[in-house]
Design a protein that fits this description.
Elements (H helix, E strand, L loop, with lengths): L9 H5 L4 H13 L9 H13 L2 H5 L11 H9 L11 H15 L6 H52 L1
Length: 165
């Protein structure tokens, strides 16, 4: 059984691109080692994007870079079930970031100032800037992984048809 390509495993698929892929992998790794946002919060954003994409492979992917957090299983489930905004398990700061992520995924131009201000109120300008950069990277990786999975599935179907003759 092969592991599906996801944002978490994407670097393996891109490694053939050489130095550019290595640079992209370093960027990905650095996102999880920052101190502007609490540990695990970017992972919850990744899962929010996976939910919005309805991407079961991405939702199931385990991100070893996300860090240790005792409540992560509960929070991840709530995000996947779209129950984060109503749950007392999330802090106001976490809810602000997750709402920002949802707006970001829908249309980066549509993010209301009030939503950005809520993120800044909890994590300051550095937190908001990091969040914007990280969401771009996370979204790009998820979309790239989805494209590669779709291409692999198409290739597999074409090979099946070719062998039937």
């Amino acid at each position: 059984m092969t592991i599906p390509i996801t944002s978490v495993t994407l670097d393996q698929s891109l490694s053939r691109a050489g130095p550019a892929a290595a640079s992209f992998a370093r960027l990905w790794t650095s996102l999880w080692a920052q101190d502007q946002l609490p540990q695990g919060l970017l992972e919850l954003c990744r899962l929010t994007f996976a939910r919005l994409h309805r991407d079961q492979d991405e939702l199931a992917a385990s991100n070893p870079l996300a860090g240790e957090r005792p409540d992560m299983d509960v929070l991840s489930r709530l995000v996947a079930e779209d129950k984060a905004h109503d749950s007392p398990a999330f802090t106001d700061g976490e809810k602000a970031v997750l709402l920002f992520a949802e707006y970001y995924w829908t249309d980066t131009q549509s993010i209301p100032d009030e939503v950005a201000d809520r993120v800044k109120a909890h994590f300051g300008d550095p937190g908001l800037v990091l969040l914007i950069e990280a969401l771009g990277c996370i979204d790009g990786r998820i979309r790239t992984a989805r494209c590669l999975r779709d291409m692999a599935a198409s290739r597999s179907k074409m090979e099946e048809v070719a062998h039937v003759e």
